[in-house]
Amino acid sequence: MALTSLIELRRDLHAHPELGYHEFRTAEIIAGFLNRCGIEVHTGIGKTGVVGVLKRGNGTRVIGLRADMDALPMADESEQPWRSQHAGAAHACGHDGHTVMLLGAAEYLAREGQFDGTVCFIFQPAEEGIAGAKAMIDDGLFHRFPCDAVYAVHNWPELPLGEAQTRAGAIMAAGDRFDITVSGGGGHAAQPHLSRDTLLATSELVVQLNTIVARAIHPCEAATLTVARIQGGSSHNMIPAKAEITGTVRTFSPQVQDLIEGRVKQLAEHITAAHGLAAEVKYTRYYPATINSEAEAHLALQAASDAGLKAAIAPYPAMTSEDFAFMLQEKPGAYLWLGSAPGYPLHHPRFDFNDDLIPYGIKWFSGVVARELG
C-alpha cells in the first residue's frame, strides 16, 4: 500500500476512535488488512485483540511486534478534517499511528521480507489504564504465540522527528492510583463549630501528600505523586458530608512503591482523625514499571539506526507508564521512543499523530525483524 493510502487509513482511524475493549471497528479493519496481505489472522484475544502470524523459512525463533489501538476518553479539540467523530473519544496518544505503522510493516514483510522464522503482529486493546496487554496474556497470548522476544514503539513529542531513544532497564514508570474519601462531617457553612469540616481536612491532606516524595523518599530515588482531582460540596453555604481525592504515583522501585502506599494510608488516617473524621483509601497498582532487557534494547537502537534515525541511549526513563510492561515481564524485549516533534504533547486535546513518522515506524519494525531473524 502506498504511503498516501496508509496516511488515509491512519486519519480514518483517528476520525473513528474506540475506547479500550471496544475497538471492534478497528480490529475488523486490522484483520481485513492482514488477510489481504496473506497473513494468518487470529481475533478476539483479550476481547478485541488481533494477532497476525507470518512465517518464512525453517527458523524456530518467534518475534512479537506490538501496537496499541485504543483511544482516550476525552474530547478531540483539533481543527483537522479527520478529527474525532465520536464525542468523548479521541486518539490523543497516537495509537492510530502505531497501528498503521505496524500494518505497513506487516504488508512490507509479507511482500518483500527476507527472514527465517516467525513474526507475530500483536494489535493490543485497552492500553490506556485498563491493562489490555495483561488481558491478552491472560487469554493465552504467549501460549498460542510463544514469542522469544517482543518489541513496541511509541511516538514521542519530546524528541524531534528523525530521532529515537531507548535504554536497557527501566524506560517507563510503574503506575499507581489512589482514591481517598473523607467523611463524617457536614453542616451549615455559617456554623462550622457545629460540624466537622471535611474540606479543611481534605485540603490539609492534599498538602501533606505532596510532601511524601520530598521528605520520605531517598533523594536519589525517582518518584512522583500528583493529586489530580479534588471533589466535594455543591453549595456556597454548606460544608459537605464527604470529599474525595484522586491521584497517581509513579515509581521504579517496589520498595519505594511500598513506602509511598504506606505513607498515603497513614497520612489519610491520621489527618482525618485529627479533624474528627474518617478516611477510606483505595490504592491500586495498575501497571508495573516497563523494564527493557539489555540485548533487545541494544538491538532496538541498531534497528533505529538502520531505519535512518538518529538513535541514542535515553538519558533517563519517563514517569509515564505503559502496559507493555506486562509483556516485558513475560518475555525479553524493548520499548522505543520514536521522536515526533513538532506537535502537541501526548494526551493534549489538540494532539494529532505526525504522519511523517509512518515511514520511520515501518522501517524500524522491519529492521527489528531483519536483525532478529535475518
Automatic annotation (TrEMBL):
Residues 178-269 form the Peptidase M20 dimerisation domain. CDD domains: M20_Acy1-like. Keywords: Hydrolase. It comes from the Bacteria. Pfam families: M20_dimer, Peptidase_M20. Coiled coil: none annotated. Transmembrane segments: none annotated. This is Amidohydrolase. The lineage of its organism: Bacteria, Pseudomonadati, Pseudomonadota, Gammaproteobacteria, Enterobacterales.
